[in-house]
From TrEMBL:
This is UPF0756 membrane protein E6C55_20660. It comes from Cohnella fermenti. Signal peptide: none annotated. It is found in: Cell membrane. InterPro entries: UPF0756_TM (IPR007382). Pfam families: DUF441 (PF04284).
Length: 152
């Protein structure tokens, strides 16, 4: 019963914050629980990130498939300073995602703070959730910076 209350609370928060993503996700999970389909929750947990990343990647690659991004645009990524910054940003983001995954393996209970922080970011800051790995990667970076200052 506790899980259902939390999901209803998330639905309310999503509605108040006008976050259709949180509202829809919480509704779907509530339906899974109410229909006694909990046996699928581990699969959703394990494969959900992959499926979400697949659709996110599809959305990002649509301009290539539709022809909006041409070969000259790809070349621009290697010949302009903004393109190089984007390349560095992409590499840094994937590195941080890896560090986030390492952090979650060592300290899995951090996921609670990451989820609540993501909800706060969606509702109050009008952010878009792209996954716990980036949030964990940023958390790992902040923890490393705080450790550096604590050691001094």
């Amino acid at each position: 019963m506790n899980g259902e209350i939390v999901l209803v609370g998330l639905i309310v928060i999503g509605l108040i914050g006008r976050s259709s993503i949180i509202t829809t996700a919480a509704c779907l999970l509530l339906v899974v629980k109410l229909l006694h389909l909990q046996r699928y929750l581990p699969t959703i947990e394990r494969r959900g990130l992959e499926i979400g990343l697949l659709f996110l990647t599809l959305a990002v690659l649509v301009p290539f498939a539709s022809g909006k991004v041409q070969l000259k645009d790809v070349a621009h990524a290697f010949t302009s300073w903004t393109g190089w910054v984007a390349l560095i940003g992409g590499a840094a983001a994937t590195y941080m995602n890896g560090k986030g995954l390492e952090l979650l393996k060592v300290d899995p209970q951090l996921i609670v703070g990451l989820v609540i922080g993501s909800i706060v970011g969606i509702v109050l800051l009008r952010g878009i959730p792209v996954g716990p790995l980036m949030a964990a990667g940023i958390t790992a970076f902040i923890l490393k910076v705080l450790q550096l200052f604590a050691d001094k």
